[in-house]
Amino acid sequence: DSGVTQTPKHLITATGQRVTLRCSPRSGDLSVYWYQQSLDQGLQFLIQYYNGEERAKGNILERFSAQQFPDLHSELNLSSLELGDSALYFCASSVVDRPNYGYTFGSGTRLTVV
Amino acid sequence: GESVGLHLPTLSVQEGDNSIINCAYSNSASDYFIWYKQESGKGPQFIIDIRSNMDKRQGQRVTVLLNKTVKHLSLQIAATQPGDSAVYFCAESTNTGNQFYFGTGTSLTVIP
């Protein structure tokens, strides 16, 4: 157990729907990072939050949004889902707002859009 | 964005042999590198890291080598075991960056 908790582990939904993925960071970590992993793209950075504030954005679509709550858990909202959104979604957490002291990944949410 | 690539997408080794997984990166400003291992259905797991002020770092059965001149990183696994079968990613970051840039991964298969 890495200490980073992601729920749900699996999600199957239809195109056009909206889903919310949840991440609880490791105890003491203030920063949360979201990544998308698809077969042909590898791990792609989506967005980072640090202590409730957005810190960095990567290749995140406008249909996707995220937030970090006062208790530091984070949610990634995916809307108007398309088949191509099917992927593994990982969050990672770190103590500081930069990853260059490494971070810890959760076990991911597998999203299947049908 | 940064380009981090792996030379070989798949690697098969005999149990007990040493494995070498290579990675090239393009950002000369990158100063922190990590190797992650990802088993099927699991999240990436930290193996070993190295900063740009070093050229070699050793862990338990693993060694990372960094050649900044040619922007190349390698992971050496000694006495490879079946449990080492997984996808291995290298990732790079800079001191001012907010993310890691990951390669596409090398799938290591250990043959018993």
Description:
The complex is a heterodimer of chains A (114) and B (112). Chain A has 114 residues and is mostly beta strands. Helix content of chain A is 0%, strand content 53%. In chain A, the strands form 2 sheets. In chain A, strands 2, 4, 5, 6, 9, 10 and 11 form a 7-stranded mixed beta sheet that branches. In chain A, strand 5 (42-50) and strand 6 (53-57) form a beta hairpin. Chain A starts with a strand and ends with a strand. With 112 residues, chain B is mainly β. Chain B contains no helices and 11 strands. The interface between A and B is medium-sized, with 23 and 26 residues.
Protein topology:
The complex is a heterodimer of chains A (about 110) and B (about 110).
Chain A: E1 5-7, E2 10-13, E3 19-24, E4 31-38, E5 42-50, E6 53-57, E7 64-68, E8 74-78, E9 87-94, E10 104-105, E11 109-113
Parallel strand pairs in A: 2-11
Antiparallel strand pairs in A: 1-3, 3-8, 4-5, 4-9, 5-6, 7-8, 9-10, 9-11
Chain B: E1 4-6, E2 10-14, E3 19-25, E4 32-38, E5 45-51, E6 56-58, E7 62-67, E8 72-77, E9 86-93, E10 101-102, E11 106-111
Parallel strand pairs in B: 2-11
Antiparallel strand pairs in B: 1-3, 3-8, 4-5, 4-9, 6-7, 7-8, 9-10, 9-11
